[in-house]
Every structure is written in C-alpha cells, then in structure tokens.
Amino acid sequence: MKRFFLLLTILLLVLAACSSGETETPADAGETTDTTTTEVESSDQPAEAVDVIKVGALYPLTGPDAGWAGDPYIKSHQMAIDEINAAGGISCLGGAQLELVKGDTEGTAEAGNSEMERLITQEGVVVVMGSALSGTTVPASEIAERNEVPYIVPNALDGTITDRGLEYVFQTVSTLQGWGADDAAYAKAQGAQTAVITVPNFSFGAEVEETWKHGIEAEGIELLESFTYDGGAQDFTDTILRVKAADPDVWFVLGNNQAPLMAKQAKEQGFYPKMGMISLGSGFGSTFFLNEAGVGVADGIIVTGDFAPVSALNVSEDLKETFKDYTGQELGGTYNTTYASTWLLADALEAACSTDPKILAETLRTTTFTDGEGKWGFQWPEASFDDQGRLEQAATVIAQWQDGQMVAIWPENLAAAEAVWPVPGWDERDGALTGEVIEQPEPEPAAGVMSILDSAEVSEAALASDYSQAILADAATVVDTSAFEKDGPYVIAVSQQDASNGWGNTYNVTMSAYGDQLLADGILAEPLLTAVTNDANQQISDIENFIEQQPDAIIVEPLGRAASTTVIKRAINAGIPVILCANGIEGDDFTSRVDVDFYEVAYKSGVGLAELMGGEGKVVVFNGIAGVDSTETWQAAALDAFAQYPGVEVIATEYAQWNIATAKQKMEAIMAANPEIDGVWAGGGEMALGAGLAFEDAGVEPPKFAMVNVPNGFLRLAEQYDYEFVGAPDPPSMARYCLQTAVDVLQGKEVTKFISLRTLMDGADPYDNTDFVQWYVPELNDDFIPPATVEIEHYVAGGFERK
C-alpha cells in the first residue's frame, strides 16, 4: 500500500497540470517510498495502454573505444531487457515490452550530444542509459536535463556527472574519484612508498591521472613520475623502459583496448614493479584483456571497480556463466552495473506505473528499491539515490587477477582471498598466482519475524503441546511393513474432500496426476479408486465400501478426527494399510501419516502475527470446517500463541469453510462493526485471501496477516499491495507423497508412523513477505495453493488456469 500513496501523489500532480495553465508542482523530494520488484501493483486495466517502452542506449558504437565501451555495454543492457520482456515486461503497464534504441557517440561530445537529442526528440525514449565515457556523458547529461528525461549512468565514472545538482541524472556506478583515493590508500596500507602513474593520452586518462595524484599525495606516497602514452600505439617499449628506470614500488597504469599488448611487452622486457601494478576500469579488467594477454600475464594485476565476480557475495555461477555467454565478458568491469541498472530501471517503471519521464524521474528520486526478483541484488543490497542523483549504495571493490579470475581482495567484508603481495616478478613465478582463501564469518541472523520464529524459545514452545509430543513420538517410531509387502502392480483407494475449495482441488489434482504417472509406470494396476465428499458420515460409508473391495492400500484425508477413527481401525483389522494424509485421527490405528505438525505451524503463525503487530492489536480469527482435526488444532495453537501477548485481543472468530467468498463476506460484516482491525489470522489461507479482498474493495489499509497455507491469490495480493504476513504451509500437493508412502509400504520399505513434509518437499517451511516470490505461480489462478509437486499442465487441466 505504500506505493498506493506514491501513485496517488503522482495522479494528483497530473490532474493539477491538466486542470489549468498553472505550473506543475513536484511532490516533496524528501519523501521516500519503499518498493520492490515483486511489490509492484498490477491491474487488469493498466494505467496506460502501452505496448513498447523505448529505452535509449548512448555509447561509442564506432571509433577507438567501441570494442570495450560500446558493444559489451549494449549487450549487457540487452541481456537484462530480454529477461525482463520474457518475464512479462512491465506488468503495471499491461506487460509493456522494453525496446533498446541505440545512439552512437563515436567517442566525441559533439556526436554524443546530437545522438542524445535524436533519441529524445525523434525516437521518443522515456529514459537514456550510458555512455561509458565521462567526456561524452557530462555534456549529454545537460541535454537530458533540458528535455526533462532521466539519464541513468551505470558506467561513466567522473564524480562531476552528479556534482552539478541536475535533477534528471542518476549515477549508479561508484565514482572515479572514490576509486583513485581507495587505490592509493590500499597501496599505502600494503607498504608502498613510491609510485609512477602512466595513462593514455585521452580525456579519461587525464581524469584518472588527476584522481590518482590526489590520492597519492593524500597518502604521503612519493610520486616519482607521471606521464602519458599514445593510447593507439602498438609498441610500448619506451613507456615500459621509462617506468622501469624510475623503479617504483607500485605502477599505477590505466589501460584501454591496447592493455594486453602493454602487459605482454612488459613481460618481454622483463619488467614488473617491485610490489605490483594497480589499474582501474575495463582496460586491464575485461575478458578481452584476459583472453588476449593470457592468464600468465594477467595474474597479479590489481584492478579497481565496483564489483568482482569472485567475492564474499557468492554471486550465482549460473548468472556469471549466462552473462559471459551472452555478452562475451566476465560479470565485472562495470558491465555488471550496466546489467543490474537495467533491471533497476524495470523496477522503477513498475513503481512509477507510467511512461512519463517526469514521473519516472520523481520515482527514482524518492524510492528505496529492494530486489524482490533477485536480479540486481548481487550488485547492491538495496538502491536509493541521494539529492545529487548518486546511488547511495555504490561502492569501491579492489580485485586481483588470480588464476585467471577477478577475485575481490578489498574491502574486508567482500574479500574472497588474500592479495598476492608483493606480486612476484615474471621470473619468480611458478604457475598461477592465488591468494589464501578468506572464509567470511557467517552473517548474523537478520532481525525480524522469521528469526524470532526460528529461535529456540519459540520452537520449544511450539513443540511443547501434547499434540506435538505425540507427533514427535510417531516420527521416531519405525513401522514394520512386512505384513503389507506384496508384489505389484497395486490397487489403491483414496478418500478425500471434494473440490469445493482451492485446497481440496489442489490436493485432488495432485493425487490424480501422480496416480496416472504410477499407472503409466506399471506400479498401479488400475486408476485410483477415488471417493470425494465434504461430509464425515459419507466418508465413513465410502471407506466401508473400500474395505469390501479389498484394495491393497487406502489413503484417507480424514474429515473428522473422532468420526473417522473407528472405520479406519476396521480397515487395519482387515489387513489393509491406511495412510493418513493431511489430517489425523484419535489413537494410533493407522499405518503412517504424512503431514506437518498442525500445532507447531499454527503456533508459529500466531507468534508471527503478534510480532508483526508489535505485540499488540485487535485480531480477527478465521477457521475452516468445525470438527476437522486441522481446524481445531490450528485454532487452539494460534490462541495459545496470542495468549503469550497480553496486548493482543481477538475481537471476532468465524468459521468460513476454507472458502474465499464466504470469508470475504464475513470480513466485510466484521469491518462494519469494528473499524480498527490490526491483524487477521486464518486457519486456511483461502480465508486470508477473502479477507484481503474485502480490505482492498473497501479501499482500506490492510492489516497484518498470518495463516496456515498460502494460496496463490494471496501471494498475488501480497505482491501488488505490499502485504506484511507470515505463512505456515500445510501444502495440499503433499498428496503426491501420501500416495508414494502407500507404495513404499506395499513394497516393504521402511517408513515411520509420522512423516514430516519438511523432509520430503520444498515449500513446507514457514516464510514471510520478504521471501515468498519463489512460491508464487503466475500461470495459475488465485485458488491454487503452492507449491506444485506435479507438472503445471496438470493444474491447468484441473481448472487452475489463470484467465
């Protein structure tokens, strides 16, 4: 809902601008709104009818810098755009697709300015990204500012880009000035006393030379010499011999696409500085450099940037491999920042819910983004811009080529290995250079609801009940299945609830699909014998009929803890193993039960809700079907949890039969009588979904939520409206494992009296609003209850297709 107020502010601005000829007044720039990729509100009727959103990409596509500053950056943007479009585009704008429109700076300010003007006035881009070279970025930013179009700069380093008070310029990369100062400080800390600076004779070289000089002077290092070389040269002998004659501890050297030649020629000349070489940017840090120079030449060179592929962040190997395959570059050299910034732009477009450049810029200025989709979090923990337009989370990372990999060596919290320092000379090396691996300490548990639920105190309380103690005893009891062992194929009967709610239908579809698979595999002799009902008395009759048919095993989803006990005992006495699925019965006359501990999960969900409310507030409780084991145990556990918080008051309790519409209707009546509601607890997430819909229809700020089971529709609302919640799954897709347990028993395999779903499947552990996206299934409708344990097409065929 936080985003609702941002969008409302924007709407009021637009209306004010349209109502008269008065000047539009911007929103308070000091106001910050939290957002995530997955929190962006979508709608069946988007704010704008948009098919394509044009994104400008301004780079030197021709000229001497095109090889490192052109195509690799374009590919970094395009990779992200391909992923964004494949994921559905900008959902808030009806799934609008991003289109990258290129502009060629040719490496000159004049061409860059002309192309910036063209992208804005002729191509109609809503934002421009680029342009790698500070010498083209600074003047082009003035044109973007004049036209009031956001200019996102992920790879041009000059701090003056965002030192001029421009409102439409946003720099996501850390600055050259910061890199230079950190380089000098690092060299000093490693014992360097003397240095030489060598840079190519172009504008960026002059900028780097200046920043290194400032840093070296500030650290008290003696600068023996500083000079330029011909950046387009093929022979660097004179440059190398000049540095060799000065004999510095450290050689600060800036490279370009000729860096491989310079490094190889330094080896040919037998020269390596006494301590090491320090560079920054892409020249000595790119895949191009590694491939052309070779591991033996690259190893040992230190390169400063804003990221290293090998660091304590443990960046996904899949991402690094995919990025290299797509772009031809390692994930580094500010190509990483370019990719991450493109995904950040997608989040900003979702948050703005508009293609108006002014609204997009305002969103960038006032929003703190978090990476709900897990696409740019490898680069920054979160993203927000200061009043100059500089990303507050941008940082310096010093890395070293070690065995052909760019490995972080500073700062300490990101370092993956110790530096090889002093770096051995060419004739002192024996194979690849590698530093000692640094084992980072385990991070402290994050403060928050989940850390509380996982605490020893809460876990002990959740397992202290007689119910949970019986579960623990059954989980430790091995069942002798030898009496049931027989050769297949088998006939298995299933008694389950009907499909009148999402839980029942998810269960039934899963059971049927896995049964069909076992039939096709020759494990079952015929399709499952199935009886469905929501009436406990009818279930007794159904099980009696099964007993007469003498199947090899019966799977029962008990509809009454006491009601089902006698007939299940009768089946056991008839020599038929009975697997309980999703509910328990009185006593122990059954073979095995596959489930979660009802009391434990519900108790933790109750604690979670109380903690979300700050330990006090008014709560509404929803229950499923009266008399069912899960219903009564869940409610008792939640109330026990609330009793630990004197400030929590239960103001209403309703049975809503695990039905969305029923819960919505009852919630509306409760809201009419109780205007202040702080939390909703539901023993079945369908009812939490119904309650959430009631709040949304009323246009009222939603309360905190906790529930056992989390339906797809609730996750959709949580994604759209920034819900705070705790979910404790009792997933109906457990049906697969109940059926497999029946087969295991018939095959004489070892089973226990109680089998916890947490040992069988992912998605059975409690989670909250900070970690739920992985369970949301956008292809399926609101009724489906994740996770899926059979192929998605079975759920689509079973009625869960999103229309």
Compute the number of structural domains: 4
Mean pLDDT: 90
The number of helical segments is 27
Poorly predicted runs: 1-46
How large, in whole angstroms, is the Cα Rg?
A: 32 Å
Task: For the structure shown, list the relevant keywords.
elongated, Rossmann fold, six-stranded parallel β-sheet, seven-stranded mixed β-sheet, disordered N terminus, 4 domains, 803 residues, alpha/beta
Report on the structure:
With 803 residues, the chain is of the alpha/beta class. It folds into 4 domains: 31-174 and 329-370, Response regulator (Rossmann fold, 3-Layer(aba) Sandwich); 176-305 and 396-428, Rossmann fold, CATH 3.40.50; 480-596 and 733-763, Response regulator (Rossmann fold, 3-Layer(aba) Sandwich); 598-728, Rossmann fold (3-Layer(aba) Sandwich). Helix content is 40%, strand content 17%. The chain has 27 helices and 28 strands. It has a 7-stranded mixed sheet with strand order 8-7-9-10-11-13-14, with helices on both faces. Strands 17-16-18-19-20-27 form a 6-stranded parallel sheet, with helices on both faces. Strands 22-21-23-24-25-28 form a 6-stranded mixed sheet, sandwiched between helices. Strand 4 (127-130), helix 5 and strand 5 form a beta-alpha-beta unit. Helix 9 packs parallel to helix 10 and helix 23 (660-673) packs across helix 24. The longest helix has 19 residues, at 502-520. It starts with a helix and ends with a helix.
